[in-house]
Amino acid sequence: NAGVTQTPKFRILKIGQSMTLQCTQDMNHNYMYWYRQDPGMGLKLIYYSVGAGITDKGEVPNGYNVSRSTTEDFPLRLELAAPSQTSVYFCASSQTSGGRETQYFGPGTRLLVL
Amino acid sequence: GQSLEQPSEVTAVEGAIVQINCTYQTSGFYGLSWYQQHDGGAPTFLSYNGLDGLEETGRFSSFLSRSDSYGYLLLQELQMKDSASYFCAVRRLTGGFKTIFGAGTRLFVKA
């Protein structure tokens, strides 16, 4: 099992450019999440999905879009990059057993918007 | 509104015991998780409390008191490799499940 994989590892964008951050999991988890983490801060939930075809907003969804066409993939789209979107982006998937949730994180994508 | 409070930094010596507290204020509380993150790495799951009481996993234990909206992570026999950031995270049930993370506690372990 590869777990949760993310591409790219690092990207520099110019203001106004767009890009898609890829996330794939091979654990057949229904729940998937996108977080951003600014330096020295905690994780902020951007979007999440409870299964293929179902997505919902988190705490900080503005400037982002997601889709979930398959169980495995949960891409995050930035349409018009802004310096405020400079951050590390983590994708996660989770399994629940007896009410207990365990989230598995990808290695992260470091994004710099200049 | 909702909030999670945890200390920003804690320092302890190798071999000691350290407790990292987390207080929360939220609707739809379902459970409290703890994650560890080393510099430059991704968060990894440590522990989960859905019910009041203590959960033990090796050197790590976590406690929850739902009536006090309070939990803590206890790390015993501290090792240098435990130097990392520790996040408490509240799982909420509000029309669906969401997990909200605290700002994290940076633990420094000294020799």
Give the SSE layout.
The complex is a heterodimer of chains A (about 110) and B (about 110).
Chain A: E1 4-7, E2 10-13, E3 19-25, E4 31-37, E5 43-51, E6 54-57, E7 64-66, E8 76-78, E9 87-97, E10 100-105, E11 109-113
Parallel strand pairs in A: 2-11
Antiparallel strand pairs in A: 1-3, 3-8, 4-5, 4-9, 5-6, 7-8, 9-10, 9-11
Chain B: E1 3-5, E2 9-13, E3 18-25, E4 29-37, E5 44-49, E6 53-57, E7 60-65, E8 70-75, E9 84-93, E10 97-101, E11 105-110
Parallel strand pairs in B: 2-11
Antiparallel strand pairs in B: 1-3, 3-8, 4-5, 4-9, 6-7, 7-8, 9-10, 9-11
What does this protein look like?
The complex is a heterodimer of chains A (114) and B (111). With 114 residues, chain A is mainly β. In chain A, 0% of the residues lie in helices and 55% in strands. In chain A, strand 9 (87-97) and strand 10 form a beta hairpin. Chain B has 111 residues and is an all-beta fold. Chain B has strands spanning 3-5, 9-13, 18-25, 29-37, 44-49, 53-57, 60-65, 70-75, 84-93, 97-101, 105-110. The mean pLDDT of chain B is 94. Classes of the chains: A mainly beta (114), B mainly beta (111). The A-B interface holds A 31, 33, 35, 41-45, 48, 50, 56, 58-59, 90, 92, 94, 98-108 and B 30-31, 33, 35, 41-45, 48, 50, 87, 89, 91, 96-104.
Short structural description:
The complex is a heterodimer of chains A (114) and B (111). With 114 residues, chain A is an all-beta fold. Chain A is 0% helix and 55% strand.
- Biggest interface and which pair forms it? A-B, 27 and 23 residues
Order of helices and strands of chain A: EEEEEEEEEEE
- Strand percentage of chain A lies at over 45%
In this structure, how is the largest beta sheet of chain B organized?
6 strands, mixed
Low-pLDDT regions of chain A: none
Which range best describes the helical content of chain A: under 10%, 10-25%, 25-40%, 40-55%, 55-70% or over 70%?
A: under 10%
Note the run of SSEs of chain B as H and E: EEEEEEEEEEE
Reported for the largest beta sheet of chain A, the result is: 7 strands, mixed
Total strand segments of chain B: 11
Oligomer: heterodimer
The number of distinct helices of chain B, counting runs of at least 4 residues, comes to: 0
Strand content of chain B: over 45%
Approximate shape of chain B: globular
Question: Which regions of chain B have little confidence, pLDDT < 50, spanning 5+ residues?
Answer: none
Distance between the termini of chain A: 36 Å
Estimate the global geometry of chain A from the Cα principal axes.
globular
Mean pLDDT of chain A: 94
Rg of chain B, nearest Å: 14 Å
Distinct helical segment count of chain A: 0
Mean pLDDT value of chain B: 94
